[in-house]
Structures are given as structure tokens and as C-alpha cells.
Amino acid sequence: MARGWVILLVIVGVVVAGECSTRAWSLARKAVPELRRADLELTAGQGAALGLLGGFRPLIADLTWIRGYILWERKDRGSEAHLRVACLLSPQSNTFWEQRANMVGLDMAHWEVRARGGRNVPVPIQETIFKRYAQKALDGIEEGVPVVRNPGSLLALGGYLAETKLKDPLIGADYYLRSYRKAPFPWYAPYFHARLLKDGGKVREAYVFLRPVWEKELSKKPDGSPLELDFLRELERALGVPMKERIPTQTFESPFPSI
């Protein structure tokens, strides 16, 4: 008898789950066009559209993301709208915001280059395409920063895109600085902020920033943060910092530092 009740409950559960998923997808299909018509802006109208989804938002976000991912696999530019809607439905998700930025800033740029002839496309035109998509990805990152769960991680991705695709080390440095100021920040954020400052010609600014960060924070880590210290040594040599004013030699360093 007990077994019969269990089977009945399982059947009821399956029916209810099916009804819920059907309703959720129906709402998603209605919501996505509405958001696209509003140009996907964070407006009161969109808020009303999202409000209709109620507790189904997490599920619909996942379904919308999966649909966007399928379109992305097909190299369909329609994927971008779905990815953005998923981000808006689940705004705290770092995964959604970061993957969307990577897809727009990296993959979609390559799609256009290949569509225009791949390696036959002149390098200046390729760089223009990459910069355009990188800026679009950075715009998406800026949209996500106020709402995402871990903005430091998202901003660090902005630094990477600005450096490698926008080809602007100082913009990249600014993103890494903003990342460093958003705890918990990726361990590499202060290092790359200083590194890109140097690449942008601001050697002294890089040293002035990184030295106190290393002395007050990074040196306290179990390994002493040797990567950052090694870069500080490089900056000290470049700036000609007198030996007596340099950071004292650490136990894990060579006792005969380079001059």
C-alpha cells in the first residue's frame, strides 16, 4: 500500500513539474521578444515584463541561456540577445555576465573576420573589428558591474579585453584598479594594474601604486608574493631607485640582487 502511495506521489510530481516547465517556457518565449523590442534597456517597462515571470526567473534565465548557447554554437548572432536577457533575468550571476563578455569580445569578432575572408582580411581592418567588439563587450561589463555578485572578477575580465583586444594598456590598467578595489578581487588584479601602467609609459605611477600594496598586503601571504616583488625589482632598476631606498631583500630572494 505504501508503495502505491509513493508511485502516486511520483506521478503527481512529474505532472506538476511538467506544467511548471511548460508555463515557464511559455513566459520566457513571451518575455524575450518584449525585452528585445525595448532594446533590452533597464527601463520601467522591462521591469514590468520581468515582474510577470515571478519565481520562474531563475529557471527561465537558464532556459534562455541554453537557447543562446545553442545559437552561439551555430555562430548565430541572435545568440547575443538571448545571452543578455539571461543576464538580466539572473543579474547576480558572474558566469552569465563573464561568458557573455567573452563570447562578444572574442568569439563574435572572430566570426566577422572569418566571414570577411579570415587571414585575407588586412591586419588594420582585423584590429578595427576586434576593437569594436571589445568595446561592445566592455559596455556589457559596465552594465553588469552594479548588479553582479562579484564585480571584481568581472572588472578583471574587462582589463584583459582592454589590454588584448582594445590594445589600450591604460584602459586595461584602470579596469584592474577598479577590480582591486572590489573585494574579493582576483589575486592578479594589483599586479596587472601596475604592469599595464608600465606598458602605458607610467613607470613611476606603477611603482608608487604597487610598492605599498605589496608591503601592506601581498607580502603577508604565505609565499610572499614573489611575482609582484620581482616586478617591483624591475621597476626599481628602471627608475634607478637607490639601493638603500629599495625594498629590503627577502629571505626567498637571491642575496645578490641585480643592479
Provide a brief overview of the structure.
Helix content is 70%, strand content 0%. It has 259 residues and is an all-alpha fold. The relative contact order is 0.06.
Structure characteristics:
single chain; 259 residues; mainly alpha; 11 helices; globular
Report on the architecture of this protein.
The protein has 259 residues and is mainly alpha-helical. The longest helix is centred in the first third of the chain and has 36 residues, at 2-37. The protein has a domain at 1-89. The protein has helices spanning 2-37, 44-51, 57-73, 79-89, 94-115, 123-144, 151-164, 169-180, 189-199, 203-216, 226-239. Helices cover 70% and strands 0% of the residues. Helix 3 runs antiparallel to helix 4 and helix 5 packs antiparallel against helix 6. It is globular. Mean pLDDT is 83; it is low at 4-22 and 33-48.
The whole-number mean of residue pLDDT values reads 83
Count helical runs.
Answer: 11
Order of helices and strands: HHHHHHHHHHH
Report on the biggest sheet: none
Determine the strand fraction and express it as a percent band.
Answer: under 5%
Oligomer: single chain
- The number of distinct β-strands equals 0
What is the helical fraction, as a range of percent? 55-70%
Distance between the termini: 86 Å
Judged by helices, strands and strand pairing, the structural class is mainly alpha
Stretches with pLDDT under 50, minimum 5 residues: 4-22, 33-48
Envelope shape: globular
